[in-house]
Amino acid sequence: MSSSDIPASINADRSPRRQTARGLRHARERAYLLMLLPAAILIVVLIGYPILTMIHLAFQDVKLVNVNAAVAPEYTLRNFQRLLTDRRLPQTFQITAIFVFGSTALAFLWGLATALLLDRAFPGRTAIRMLIVSPWAVAAVVASLAWMFLLNSESGLMNYMLLAAGIIDKPINFLGSSIWALPTVVFVSAWKSYPFFTVMLMAGLKAVPKDALDAAKIDGAGPLVRFFWVTLPALRPVIAVSLPLSLLSAFREIETILVLTGGGPGRATETLALGIYNRAFQYFEVGRASALGVVVFLLCFVLVVGTLWLIQDRKRAQ
Fold this sequence. Notes:
The chain is mainly α. The protein has one domain (77-317): MetI-like fold, CATH 1.10.3720. Helix content is 73%, strand content 0%. The chain has helices at 8-58, 78-84, 89-118, 125-137, 140-150, 157-164, 181-205, 210-218, 223-251, 255-260, 272-281, 286-317. α1 crosses α12, α3 (89-118) runs parallel beside α7 (181-205) and α8 (210-218) packs across α9. The longest helix is centred in the N-terminal third of the chain and has 51 residues, at 8-58. Its main location: membrane. The chain crosses the membrane at residues 32-59, 93-118, 130-151, 171-191, 289-311. Belongs to the binding-protein-dependent transport system permease family. It is a multi-pass membrane protein. Residues 1-21 are annotated as: Disordered.
């Protein structure tokens, strides 16, 4: 039966209903957009405007004292030329890569282990959950100060315990040695950020299909096989969100390094973020700091896009 065979009264009855449903759908979409508008404006003001200002200052050879001068300096590429000729820049990139990927990887493994532990039922689980997540609630400066006293080479608790256990025969200068300084700040940063992964992965574990775990167990799969073939694939959406966020957080972190080592000894722990801070607020070179900030912004963008693409590509391959 064609549409021409349907009585006109029925068509007339259906058309207003469709138009009403379509109108309600459009009205709902407009309401959603209006609800999102304040958040979008806030993002543009708090994120977009500073990024544009940073790019603007990157092409100007200005100091902190005259950044708001009435006469704007001329645009120049001198800041980027200085970056390309800076002999310490490759070392700074290497230190940043070790710090960012090392602290993120350690925090992820640490958070995954604690999430798997807390997913099991045992006495006192609530108290242990609060204890494990507590580093996340402590301010970065306060936590770094606490670790600075714990790692002190003369009166620190860490050296005392290692000496008492007979593991070492003399105190280790964790924060003043070029060998130990970078691994130490990586460890402290991971300790501060691993509760983020714990909370995210604990929520993801609730979505793991119990039927698939039971079926794999019946088929004779061991704990490791069930983890890698059932649990970990189910956690991939959570990892795809939490991992880029943690990488970005590690890229911009300066509090831990600034309190513990200040970038030393001999710039052995100076990352790109700390380099931006030093150029802007110690040497007052806002133009050079902004140029380095543009480079870091592009690196973060490429890193996040690459991480998301890699995770989604593996998801499609499965």
